[in-house]
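Reminder to self: tokens first, then the designed residues, so the page reads top to bottom the way the pipeline ran.
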């Protein structure tokens, strides 16, 4: 496992409260139940983290595996983020299926990586018919910064997309352009809608 991946996983685990750690690791579904049973979650957190990193090294965790863990952590703590909400609509004369999840994911990643070389995109679908997208931005000369990502949550049965507020403001217009290019859809002006209320409505 690459050292940068190990550090990424380590930092993510350190953010997770101990009382949530087992639940989040099971939702991650990267380490098996048998592997998790070898971990003594009652010891000091530093020791727990070291053991978990060792297990991830044995399974050769990838950058995408690490990104999925971060997505799950963010899902559990989505109320701590500020979200911008966009309502999408079809353009005049466009016959586009806004709810085609496979098409949306494939197009989103392809178009974004074409527009910006150094970017990593990870997806996680949830039971409430939503897809979580994690975008780590880089520049023409630097690798993606895994510690300042942008999250987009797209509910396939609605025309709404949620975007987490990012410190990398320069990428906000680009993200809007890519969302529009994904399916020849158009972002209407931002509206007020609570992501947690949207989640409850589709549970």
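Designed residues (203 positions):
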């Amino acid at each position: 496992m690459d050292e940068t991946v190990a550090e990424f996983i380590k930092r993510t685990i350190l953010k997770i409260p101990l009382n949530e750690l087992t639940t989040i690791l099971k939702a991650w579904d990267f380490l098996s139940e048998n592997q998790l049973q070898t971990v003594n979650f009652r010891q000091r957190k530093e020791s727990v983290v070291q053991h978990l990193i060792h297990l991830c090294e044995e399974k050769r965790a990838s950058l995408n595996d690490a990104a999925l863990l971060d997505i799950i952590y963010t899902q559990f703590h989505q109320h701590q983020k500020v979200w911008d909400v966009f309502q999408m609509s079809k353009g005049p004369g466009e016959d586009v299926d806004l709810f085609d999840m496979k098409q949306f994911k494939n197009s989103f990643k392809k178009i974004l990586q074409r527009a910006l070389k150094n970017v990593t995109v990870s997806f996680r679908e949830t039971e409430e018919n939503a897809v979580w997208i994690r975008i780590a931005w880089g520049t023409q000369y630097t690798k993606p910064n895994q510690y300042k990502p942008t999250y987009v949550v797209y509910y396939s049965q609605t025309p709404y997309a949620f975007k987490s507020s990012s410190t990398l403001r320069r990428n906000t217009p680009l993200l809007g352009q890519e969302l529009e290019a994904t399916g020849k859809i158009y972002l209407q002006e931002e509206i007020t809608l609570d992501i947690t209320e949207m989640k409850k409505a589709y549970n």
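Residues 81-201 form a domain with the S-adenosylmethionine decarboxylase fold (CATH 3.60.90).
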